[in-house]
Amino acid sequence: MPNPPSSKSRVILGLDPGLAITGYGIIRSGPKIQLIEAGVIRIRRDQPLAARLKELYAGIMEVFESLPIEDVAIEQLYSHYERPRTAILMGHARGVLCLAAANSGKAVHSYAPTKVKSLLTGNGRAPKSQMQLAIQQQLMLKEVPDPPDVADALAIALCHHFATGPFAELLKKSRKPL
User: Fold this and answer.
1) pLDDT at residue 6 is higher than 80
2) How far is it, in rounded angstroms, from Cα 48 to Cα 51?
3) How many folded domains does the chain comprise?
4) Which has fewest Cβ within 10 Å: 33, 101, 131, 155?
5) CATH of the domain at 142
6) C-alpha to C-alpha distance for 133 and 121, rounded to whole angstroms
7) Could you report the per-residue pLDDT of 108-142, keeping only the tens digit for each?
């Protein structure tokens, strides 16, 4: 017989990596999902790459130091054939975020954008507007989360909540084998 759903709450940090803007969203997962904080870390574009990475690291460490984060979820690296440079730059930012999590003693859980969209909307190709509405409903927000970097970070945090929470086994059972 499966274990009953846990009522233990967890603080989950969702990250949407970027070298100009990194979105973050922090939720409390439990019987009721609560938004704790969400925002962006803006990186000055007029600096060399190393200085920008250092600025990102300092910004995310402030987030780690300000709240008792237990789980970290981040978007998996993906690339488009038309923009390989974007994927490379995102990889730099993602690496810094993973380093900050490791230095804070946190494991990092990665989710593909299509999985995040599928878990929240039922459509792995959902447009940003549909994602923002799903996040608004899940977190009972008065408005859709904006900018998109914040919405993406909150979506990743929610995905981790659903993928690891009390109903994770039901999600696994409902998936079709490849």
Assistant:
1) no
2) 5
3) 1
4) 33
5) 3.30.420.10
6) 9
7) 999 999 999 998 998 889 998 999 999 999 999 99
